[in-house]
Design goal:
Layout lengths: L1 E10 L5 E7 L8 E2 L11 H13 L8 E10 L8 E8 L12 E7 L12 H9 L2 E9 L6 E10 L6
Parallel strand pairs: 1-5, 4-7
Antiparallel strand pairs: 1-2, 2-3, 2-6, 4-5, 7-8
Amino acid sequence: MKEATLCLLVRDNPVPEVLLGWKKVGFGAGKYAGFGGKVEPGETIPQAAVRELEEETGIRIPEQSLLPAGCLTFLFPARPSWSQVVHLFLVRAWEGQASESREMRPRWFPVSNLPFDQMWQDSAHWLPPVLEGRGVRARFTFESDNETIAAMTQETWVLEPGAR
């Protein structure tokens, strides 16, 4: 199964807002999501996260700015090529402003008003705990429509103080 990354840029603690991107092309087009993508051959997971964040937002960060927040497994039995393990990171320190790319249009959302109706269905399960300072390990299996969750498991834990 392929590996991928997902970065969530957040401000302050507790988190009042999160930067999401409207996916314009490719996998997940027409939905809001965090920033990330597949790990290229010869690349570490942190290297992939840093590269994808820059490609999709123009924001450059050192690997030390990545705060591990968990791992999400997505299974698409009707479309096995979509199945993936996603390494999740919070990013609290960066310089510059996110800008629109060919792939994504970034937008800040208040945590109290996230666009779950325009996101993958799984987001409503794992995103709130992460924004509350919890790590998450979850597994989602999708129905044949590749949208509806057929089954899920999830565990959370309190993140280390530096990640919250």
